[in-house]
Every structure is written in structure tokens, then in C-alpha cells.
Model the fold of this input.
Amino acid sequence: MKTILELPAMYGDHHVTEVRHILLGLDGVKDVYASSGFRVVEIEHNSKEITKEAILTKLEEAGYAEDLSLPQELDIPANEAREKAFFRRTSAYAQTKNVIGFEQDVRYEGRAQWPCPGMGLLDVAVTQTEEVNNG
Done:
């Protein structure tokens, strides 16, 4: 049986690798084709060994089946907003001539980076200890 699922949070090749790793580790899954460009995964599996719902549950646990929540800019100036607003900054440098850069400071629920399903956080304490021991 073939099952096709949309995975909104599978937006890079490193996600494809992780999704394939997750799915190919399940009993009954025979083959997996995953596309980060289309955010779709096609799974060939034995429906007697594993159901579509079980596959989807496993992908939901890893964070791949939910929509990415991206902050939206308001259509009014940030200093006039009554709710949390995102400030966009512009910059121009002599070296880049007629190019103007735009920057926006976005923090997703207090995190410094966007969430990346399938990838855990680095343990800074372990990393620093390894540097001391190796360096």
C-alpha cells in the first residue's frame, strides 16, 4: 500500500534524511520517497503491519506534521501596535552601493533559532567540556 502525506515542517534536505530514518525504522515500512521541495512523503508499507494513522502519529511526535508557525508583521507601525510587534531595521553601507538590507529580530517563543524537527538542541556544557579535553 502507498500512503502520501504532506509534511509542512519538512523544508530541508536534513529533514528528508531524518524523516526517512524515522519511517524506515518502523516495522512494515518498505520504501520511502520524501521531497523537501514539495514537503510530501510517499510511503510504501504493509497495511497489515502498520497503519497510516500509526505512521502519521510517529511523524507528529517528531514535529513534522504540524504547520510552521511564523510571526506575521502588522500593517500598522510597530510603535502604534497594541499587541506584540516585530521591528524591521534597514541598513545601507558604502561598500554595497545601492543595496539596502532589511533585518528583522524575530524570536520564536523565546528561542534564538527556528525550531527544526528531528534535530535536538546542543548541550553547551558538554561541548565546552569536550573542547577543554580535546583542545
Observations:
- The helical segments are 13-24, 52-61, 124-134.
- The chain has two domains: 2-61, 71-113.
- DSSP finds three helices and five strands in the chain.
